[in-house]
Design brief:
There is one protein chain. The protein has one domain. It is built from three helices and no strands. Helix 2 packs across helix 3. It is mainly alpha-helical and 82 residues long. This is DUF2929 family protein. It holds the Pfam family DUF2929. Keywords: Membrane, Transmembrane, Transmembrane helix.
């Protein structure tokens, strides 16, 4: 009960700083790029009958997803009217 009374006034949703939001969104992009890259890479390698190297495919997909997402954000950042 002491724990509940002590922390009862802390809001459930705490606002994160902008940098933390940016880091979290980039981690989500890297995670999903890895998953989709592995799936697409596996299918493509089976169609081409090539050896499957998951580490190389995952790293390449993560880098491409990270660069594409941040590149699109930086290019379109100045186009919003203020």
């Amino acid at each position: 009960m002491i724990f509940l009374r002590k922390y009862a006034k802390i809001p459930l949703i705490v606002r994160r700083p902008k940098t933390m939001k940016l880091i979290a969104s980039n981690l989500v992009v890297i995670f999903w790029a890895l998953i989709f890259g592995e799936i697409i890479g596996y299918i493509a390698n089976q169609l081409e009958v090539l050896p499957y190297n998951p580490m190389q495919i995952g790293i390449t997909a993560a880098i491409v997803g990270f660069c594409a997402t941040n590149g699109i954000y930086l290019i379109s950042k100045g186009s919003f009217s203020k």
